[in-house]
Amino acid sequence: MATFLVLTLLTLWSFSSPVQAEIFTSIGQMTDLIFAERELVQSLKEYIEAEELKLEAVKSWADKLDLLTRASTSDPEGFLAHPVNAYKLMKRLNTEWSELESLVLQDPSDGVRYNAELTVDDCFDMGKLAYNENDYYHSVLWMQQALRQMDSGEDAKTLKADILDYLSYSVYQMGDLPRAIELTRRLVAIDPSHQRAGTNLRYFERLLSKELRDLGRSQQEPADERPIQLDTYERPKDYLPEREVYEALCRGEGVKMTPKRLSRLFCRYQDGNRNPRLLLKPMKEEDEWDSPHIVRFLEALSDEEIEKIKELAKPNLARATVRDPNTGVLTVAHYRVSKSAWLEGEDDPVIARVNQRIEDVTGLSVNTAELLQVANYGVGGQYEPHYDFSRKDEPDAFKSLGTGNRVATFLNYMSDVEAGGATVFPDFGAAIWPRKGTAVFWYNLFKSGEGDYRTRHAACPVLVGSKWVSNKWIHERGQEFRRPCGLTEVD
Predict the structure, then answer these.
(1) What is the mean pLDDT of the chain?
(2) If I label 18, which of 5, 167, 367, 468 is the partner at 20 to 30 A Cα–Cα?
(3) What pLDDT, on a 0 to 100 scale, did the predictor assign at position 219?
């Protein structure tokens, strides 16, 4: 477009300038204008072609996005249940719409790519995010994937040198000097002028030489001659054993449900010691675990109740908080990723009915319980291993409530989850999977009031789907005659 305008202005200036007036008196000179006009026409055609290509790219992008938004708006939660869809939505809103604006306002380009898979650039962005959080283990995994896809021939805006730069330093942070050296040498081979790579390489080699001297041996094989292993890397050595168990349980591995234990699990009808509200329709109850005793109540919530609870909670959903053990104040924490809202019995008859049902089936008073907490875990949403009760070194955790410690937890599952989202207990190897409309219940304290440390549990990351739960934390006060104290510490 700029070329066309410049030529047009030059031509107009030629016709209007007094200095050039004599050109009309010479046919020989006027023939030059014929060719100049031909160049103008060619420039105009090129401009039209470029604009058509740009418009075609914009139209193609709009058509794809139109199809996408039709699918996403027909079932928003189902669409966002796929982790790639959720990631792509955030990326479009943060970067790709800006790219489209540049496309419209500036030169034509290839448009914005749109697909249902993570690209090299996506993997690189995820790796950088982990790197900036000092999470070098996951930075390595993402950078390896970006490099693998690039080496397979996938086009990308990201430079291979940038991937190797992040990957080599992350590997160094993971403690693997030989591999950091081989990756850095590969980076130097691609970009010899990369100043940081050269500095890092010399530093890594000095460290490795020192380590080898300290070990009293020589390096048997040059680092740059070893094959690059991109798909095998161990977890950090400082991973706690609990972390290993927690992640395994979330994958469905390591569940310690033996035939002997299974034989001790039963199902029954729970009438709450002949509670009038449960006589005609007792609650179906199943044992999930024998010791500590965890039960699941079936048909604990109807679909209508679930939808009403979600409807009431959605306007008030905010980043979920945890209670600071030192101050008792609610605060956000990196180990809990979800949004939550608190509902009172006075908010709606459905909430009052649910609270009453919890009291009926557990036999515990909810008058001193915390409000019904509703939580939504999106893709990646999780709550790392934690206790629901306060420990002896946290005496003020619930002091402001004046209702004592959390004696029990009642957890409603308000959705099924396609993948992930289990409630796991690393101490004894249990995994309880969400089933819409059911609820699980366990005691956090022994009858003596001592905490049952076996109940440390976690909400596994949601991999595909959306997880909705609501929970009631029941406190000690008001349970004196409903659950009398035991005579021993573990009663």
Answers:
(1) 84
(2) 5
(3) 46
Q: What is the per-residue pLDDT across 426-442, written as a single tens digit (0 to 9) for each?
A: 999 999 999 999 999 99
CB-CB contact of 471 with 410 (8 Å): yes
Query: 19 vs 11, 14, 22, 29, 37, CA distance in Å?
Result: 13, 9, 7, 14, 20
| Nearest Cα to Cα of residue 369 among 395, 396, 348, 351 | 351
3-state secondary structure the chain: CHHHHHHHHHHHHHHHCHHHHHHHHCHHHHHHHHHHHHHHHHHHHHHHHHHHHHHHHHHHHHHHHHHHHHHHHHCHHHHHCCHHHHHHHHHHHHHHHHHHHHHHHCCCCCCCCCCCCCCHHHHHHHHHHHHHCCCHHHHHHHHHHHHHHHHCCCCCCCCHHHHHHHHHHHHHHCCCHHHHHHHHHHHHHHCCCCHHHHHHHHHHHHHHHHHHHHHCCCCCCCHHHCCCCCCCCCCCCCCCHHHHHHHHHHCCCCCCCCHHHHCCCCEEEECCCCCHHHHCCCEEEEEEECCCCEEEEECCCCHHHHHHHHHHHHHHCEECCEECCCCCCEECCCCEECEEEEECHHHCHHHHHHHHHHHHHHCCCCCCCCCEEEEEECCCCEEEEECCCCCCCCCCCCCCCCCCCEEEEEEEECCCCCEECCEEECCCCEEECCCCCCEEEEECECCCCCECHHHCEEECCEEECCEEEEEEEEECCCCCCCCCCCCCCCC
